[in-house]
Amino acid sequence: MIEVKELRRSFGPIVAVDGVSFSVEKGDVLGFLGPNGAGKTTVMRILACFLTPDSGTASVCGYDILKKPVQVRRSLGYLAENAPAYNEMTVGAFLNFVCDARQITGSKRKQSLDRIVPMCAIESVYHQTIETLSKGYQRRVGLAQALIHDPDVLILDEPTDGLDPNQKYEVRKLINKMAKDKSIIVSTHILEEVEAVCSRMIIISRGRILVDSTPEKLKEKYRCSLDEVFRKITRAKVA
User: Does residue 213 lie in a domain region?
Assistant: First the structure.
């Protein structure tokens, strides 16, 4: 459902993404890992059609990101690292605004809201303005807007950032529940999270993929925890 082919993107003299290729099938949860500045967010922004690659391309649900960006956006839900929202809006008004943008109307809107509000556990703050919410609740609202149209593809950049341990557990459980019907990319620095939800993991550094494997195979190969695997791979390539 996601096909990435030789993506490259530079910002001036800095090559952020350098020939990245991978695929994510239905039922896959891909952990997308790397040091800060590795190129993870740039790749995700390209897939979500917020950035255009210098070369290469990708498709989401069969739609080319360069030729059919509107269809790509309709097919995916994107939770950015710093998910933008209108602080003066209430949670309910913001989600209705997202429904307007997604052209979800009438009974389908009610069904979507009735499904997503309890799913993301935001009933208690539904009538509060976003600026009054804790970071954890703001993150949950960001997740709700990504899921409200029940997309086939999800791109989640640090989905549990700012959540307490109980909230992290609930979000991970939600990702596992959705996994069988969707293609999901999860970017995170929490290796425990990768073990909890990801069927596969890619480690990227300096814009290039270093490893594409499963958490189990990497732990078996290196005979250590995922944290140590990550350090060994990224440090070896830097050295």
Answer: yes
How many independent structural domains does the chain possess? 1
Strand, coil or helix: what is 187?
Answer: strand
Residue 110, SS3 per DSSP: helix
Q: Structure pTM?
A: 0.92
DSSP 23-41: EE-TT-EEEEE-STTSSHH
Dist. CA 67–CA 48, nearest whole Å:
13
Q: Using alpha carbons, select from 230, 225, 192 the residue that is nearest to residue 211.
A: 230
Are β-strands 2-11 and 14-24 bridged in parallel, bridged antiparallel, or unpaired?
Answer: antiparallel
The 10s digit of each residue's pLDDT in 4-35 is: 999 999 999 999 999 999 999 999 999 999 99
By residue range, what is the domain housing residue 187? 2-84+152-238
Residue 120 lies in a domain: no
> What letter does residue 188 receive in the DSSP assignment?
-
Whose tokens are 């309709």? That residue is 74
Of 36, 77, 28, 50, nearest to 184 by C-alpha is 28
Residue 59 within a domain? yes
Q: Residue 99: which residues within 8 A CB-CB, separation 6 or more? A: 105, 109, 112, 113, 148
